[in-house]
UniProtKB/TrEMBL annotation:
<dbReference type="InterPro" id="IPR025669">
    <property type="entry name" value="AAA_dom"/>
</dbReference>
<dbReference type="InterPro" id="IPR050678">
    <property type="entry name" value="DNA_Partitioning_ATPase"/>
</dbReference>
<keyword id="KW-1133">Transmembrane helix</keyword>
<dbReference type="Pfam" id="PF13614">
    <property type="entry name" value="AAA_31"/>
</dbReference>
<feature type="domain" description="AAA">
    <location>
        <begin position="5"/>
        <end position="176"/>
    </location>
</feature>
<feature type="transmembrane region" description="Helical">
    <location>
        <begin position="330"/>
        <end position="357"/>
    </location>
</feature>
<keyword id="KW-0812">Transmembrane</keyword>
<dbReference type="InterPro" id="IPR027417">
    <property type="entry name" value="P-loop_NTPase"/>
</dbReference>
<keyword id="KW-0472">Membrane</keyword>
<protein>
    <recommendedName>
        <fullName>Chromosome partitioning protein ParA</fullName>
    </recommendedName>
</protein>
<comment type="function">
    <text>Involved in chromosome partition. Localize to both poles of the predivisional cell following completion of DNA replication.</text>
</comment>
Amino acid sequence: MKPYIVAIFNQKGGISKTTTSTNLAVCLAAHGKSVVVIDLDSQGDSTKSLGIDPNVRQGIYDLFIGAAKLEDVILPTRFEGLRVIPSTYSLAGIEIKLSELKDSQRTLSTIVSHASIDCDYIIIDCPPALGILPINALATADAVIIPVTATPYANDGLLRTLPSIKYVQEGLNKALLLQGVLFTIHDRHKAARKISDLIRARLGGTVYGAEIPRDNMVIEAAASRLPVCVYAPKSAAAQAHLDFTVEFLERHHKIAAKAGQELAPFPARPAAMDRLQGWRVELADHLAAPEQGGLAQQTSRLDRMLYGDRTTVERLHLALIHFFIDHRGVLAVFLALVALVGLMVIGAGVGGVRLLADAFGLS
Ligand SMILES: Nc1ncnc2c1ncn2[C@@H]1O[C@H](COP(=O)(O)OP(=O)(O)OP(=O)(O)O)[C@@H](O)[C@H]1O
Ligand SMILES: [Mg+2]
C-alpha cells in the first residue's frame, strides 16, 4: 500500500518540529510499522538525532538534483523498521538549484511517487520559515502536523503557518489534510495554560489531547543523538510522545476508514513501550559513553575551521588574540606594562644620547 506521508511543519523555529518527527518515527517503528524519515532541514538535526552523521556522502539534496537514486541515499538506523533519507550540509544551496528547475514546488512529490518507497509511514521534518523546501513537503504530504509551543508568540507562528497550508491546499495539493496541532515544550504554569486553552477553544478537536511537557531529558537525549523515547522511555516527555503516537495512529485509522480503506491493527501501547525499552537496553554501551568522541570530533573540526592550515606561530598568535578578547582585564594590564616598558626604553634612550653627547663634548 502507498505510504501515509506526514509533514511536520511550523514556520516558527525551535518549537520541536525535529523532536516531534524523530520521536513519532521511532514510536511508530516501536508499533511495528515501517517508517522513513526525510530530513528536509540543512541543519540535519533529525539525521543526527537518529544517530547518522550529516557528513554522509549523499542525501536528499542528491535526490533533488537527480544525482543519486533512492537506494543510494536511504539509510537504516539502529531501530528496526526505521530508515532515514538524510540531510547533508549541501542542502543549504538547494533553493538556487531548484529555482532552475521547472515545477520546482513539486520536485519532492515527483521523486517520492516515482521511487515508490516501500514503507507504512513517511515523516518529513521541515525547516523553519517558508521556502521551497516546506512547500515541497506540503505538496507531497497526505497530512500535516503543526507543533506549537504555548508562548505569547504561538499565535504568530500559527497565523503564518495556516495560510501557507491553505495556499498549498488551494493549488499544489488539494488532498492535503491538517491532521492536528500538537502542544510541545509545554509548561505547566498559568500563562501557558491560558494560551493553550485559547488555541484549543479556537481549533477544537484539531488539537491533540496529548501535550509534550518541557523535560530536560529531551535535551540530554539530543546530546546523545537519540530520540528521548529511546534515551529515557519512562520520562514524562517520552510517555507523552507515546500517547501522541497512539492518538496519531487512531486518527489515521479513522481517516483511512472514511476513505474506505482498512488498515492493519496496531499493537497495544505496552508492547510498543517494551520495544522502546529493548532498544534502550541494546544501546546501553552507547549511553554509558555519551558523546565523548563526538564532542572531541566537533572541537577539532571547530579548530580546523578557526585555524585552517596555519603555521604554529600563526596559531599561537591567533590563540593569543582570542585569549585577550576573552580576558580584557589582562589585556589592559599587558598594555599598561608595554607602555611602561616603552617609556623606560625611551628614557634610557634619551639618557644614553645625553651620555654620548657629553662624551663627545657636544652638549
Ligand atoms: N519537550 C521538550 N522539553 C525540553 N526541551 C525540548 C523539548 N522539545 C524540544 N526541546 C528542545 O528545544 C530545542 C528545539 O527543538 P527542535 O530542534 O526539535 O525544534 P525545531 O522546531 O525542529 O527547531 P528548528 O526550527 O531549528 O528546526 C532543542 O534544543 C530541543 O532539544
Ligand atoms: Mg528542526
